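Following up on my earlier thread - several people asked me to post the actual chain instead of describing it. Fair enough. Here it is, all 85 residues.
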Amino acid sequence: MAKFSKMPREKAPNPVRQTGRLKARMREYEDHVASIKKGEAGRLDPEGGETVRGIALRISRAAKRMGVSVRTWVVEGSVYFELSR
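Reply from S.P.:
Thanks for posting it. Predicted structure:
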């Protein structure tokens, strides 16, 4: 369990702004979600140290930002997703 503590706001560090690289990655996953229509499924294969768990999480978060629901599943190292609305 994480250790919790409180402090005055002025002693807390300021939030870090998103980098352009992070925004680009978020947009990429939103594009993947937007490209899928009802009755279709998308497939993502991990590359460069990515994990299936991380990919599934990014797809789910992208869908949530877009106001849609997706269902994800993993088979043999690939992440699949479909619209679930």
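Residues 7 and 13 are 11 Å apart (CA to CA). That should answer part of your original question.
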